[in-house]
Design a protein that fits this description.
By secondary structure, this protein is α/β, with parallel strands linked by helices. It has a single domain (about 45-300), classed as TIM Barrel (Alpha-Beta Barrel). It is built from 9 helices and 14 strands. The strands form 5 sheets. It has a 5-stranded parallel beta sheet. The termini are far apart.
């Protein structure tokens, strides 16, 4: 009697042997309940996704020439699941990037005229149109959550974030822009000298909403895209700060501005090393996982 294969094993086969014929395919039936416990509705096939640090985009998608290996791996996942995995292009380096429409290299360069604040300056990396073109090499229809720079606060900061967002909206044609994330780990901005005191969740909420409003009014609305297109950024810690989701809610991040709601999803993460720490110290690993929240979980107004 043949033993059933686990989903992980099936995924491995799918990646290793993308050309298996239909005669060799294996189907799996999942019981709607187990031991009386109900299960969730079907998950969106793009539910499982990947995060790419913005500075490392070209390692995945290629420089002047596409990286066919990694792109084909994602295409294999799309063909077996029914949709491409969701990609979050976000992380620390989104808060270092400045968009320059005249910079045409496939890659980023160090800004020789950086003037912004920060241990690593908030305008220290220059990207241009081919950065977005490289991202658009991902499989057709790939949902993209794109990270914009919140850390930069120098002259013309609103024009900068608007021009960057406009380039993304105009440049992503093969993939599907799903949402914008403004800033990354703002709870560390004081530590990283991105802001000076006072800096807390309330101040962050004000600055987040100002930038979301500018991007919507000047970019999304003219393009026929909805206002609820933004995600408050992932924080480095989920407890013990003024950046907890419940606190940001009280600070008004879910309120209207100019008659519009801007937050459609929460983006929250935690770090896997905490599980290793608790395992090595003989503590229960669920101590860490109790603080996890699903990224892109929908918030209903």
């Amino acid at each position: 009697m043949l033993r059933s294969l686990s989903p992980a094993a099936l995924l491995s086969l799918a990646l290793l042997y993308p050309n298996l014929s239909s005669a060799q395919s294996i189907s799996v039936t999942v019981s709607p309940s187990r031991s009386g416990a109900s299960v969730s509705d079907n998950l969106d096939p793009s539910f499982a996704g990947f995060g790419i640090e913005p500075s490392n985009l070209f390692s995945f998608t290629g420089w002047n020439e596409p990286n066919h290996f990694s792109i084909q791996l994602l295409q294999n996942l799309a063909e077996y699941s029914g949709a491409p995995p969701h990609i979050r292009l976000g992380g620390n380096t989104q808060d270092y990037m400045a968009y320059d429409a005249k910079y045409m290299d496939f890659g980023w360069k160090k800004n020789p005229q950086s003037t912004a604040q920060g241990v690593i300056a908030a305008d220290s990396m220059i990207i241009g149109p081919n950065y977005i073109k490289a991202l658009d090499r991902l499989p057709e229809g790939t949902p993209i959550t794109y990270g914009l720079n919140l850390a930069y606060m120098g002259n013309g900061y609103e024009d900068r974030i608007v021009s960057h967002a406009q380039a993304v909206v105009d440049g992503l044609n093969n993939t599907r822009l799903y949402s914008f994330e403004i800033g990354n780990e703002p709870d560390l901005y004081l530590q990283n000298s991105m802001r000076s005191a006072p800096w807390d969740g309330q101040t962050f909420t004000t600055q987040f909403m100002e930038r979301a409003n500018a991007v919507y009014q000047r970019v999304l609305k003219p393009a026929g895209l909805p206002a609820m297109f933004f995600e408050p950024p992932a924080t480095a810690s989920t407890i013990g700060t003024t950046f907890e989701i419940a606190m940001l809610d009280k600070d008004g991040i879910l309120d209207q501005m100019n008659g519009e709601y801007y937050v459609g999803w929460w983006n929250q993460h935690d770090y896997f090393y905490c599980m290793l720490y608790h395992f090595l110290s003989h503590r229960h690993p669920l101590t860490c996982t109790s603080h996890w929240r699903n990224a892109h979980s929908y918030y209903s107004q």
